[in-house]
Design goal:
The chain is mainly α and 255 residues long. It has 10 helices and no strands.
Length: 255
């Protein structure tokens, strides 16, 4: 029944976030959850991602040769480190230092235009930045390096284990279920990140109006909470896999 750990933990986390949203005023919740990486909750999330790095080496969740285990632990370490980089906005700080002429102190692009003549806005970590002909090649290379080290390595890991995770889910393998809810938390974060923009568009509201209302605080609560949940489920999956494989259970259950 250890496969139930992930769904039960997910239910507890979602319930805690919902209760937090209900009892807190929108302005107070935003101050506690989202202050451009400086809020209490955002700072509390970083240690969970950082903890993945020593845990994956200490409690190795992989089987096989030493070389295979080392390569897989290195891949997890790379993804976890890049998650910390993202949480601390080190990627934006690096772009500001390397390319001050096109990336401002706020982390947004300035001085560039789209093909239609409109100003290019947002951070440099957008597809429109990579496809803009006015962007220096070196700046595009840095952005691609970030995407490769973060999302690229993660995608390779996911593809490598996709079949085993799919089979493990139906076999009620605890680690497969934890990875499933790890992914579910990631989907929740992505949805909650996009919902405010959709809500603004449908209702014709400004950004500040959405941020300060109940719907905006709901999205903030579950987006930031989901980011912490991603790290928690990653740690849970590592510990479960290590516990299972050190007991040398049936080979068909190996991940």
């Amino acid at each position: 029944m250890s496969w139930l750990a992930a769904p039960l933990l997910f239910a507890m986390c979602v319930t805690a976030l919902f209760v937090t949203w209900v009892v807190m005023e929108p302005a107070a919740l935003r101050h506690a959850f989202d202050m451009d990486g400086r809020s209490t909750f955002e700072l509390a999330t970083i240690p969970f991602y950082a903890a993945i790095i020593p845990i994956v080496w200490w409690k190795c969740p992989f089987t096989g040769s030493r070389r295979r285990r080392t390569l897989l632990c290195l891949a997890v370490t790379c993804v976890a480190f890049m998650a910390v980089v993202k949480e601390l906005d080190w990627h934006l700080a690096a772009m500001q230092q390397l390319f001050p002429s096109i990336v401002g102190a706020d982390g947004n692009v300035h001085g560039l235009v789209k093909p239609n003549g409109a100003p290019l806005t947002g951070t440099p970590f957008k597809m429109r930045f990579l496809t803009n002909g006015a962007v220096p090649f070196a700046a595009k290379a840095c952005v691609l390096l970030y995407f490769g080290a973060f999302f690229g390595v993660f995608a390779v890991l996911l593809a490598y284990y996709s079949v085993k995770l799919f089979k493990g889910f139906f076999r009620l393998h605890p680690t497969a279920w934890s990875v499933c809810f790890f992914g579910g938390s990631g989907v929740m974060v992505a949805v909650m990140d996009r919902l405010p923009a959709w809500y603004r568009h449908v209702n014709g509201l400004g950004k500040d109006e959405v941020i300060s209302n109940s719907f905006g605080s709901f999205c903030t609560c579950f987006e930031e909470g989901g980011e912490m949940m991603i790290a928690i489920f990653a740690i849970l999956a590592i510990l479960q896999a290590h516990s299972i494989y050190t007991r040398q259970i049936k080979p068909h259950c190996e991940l």
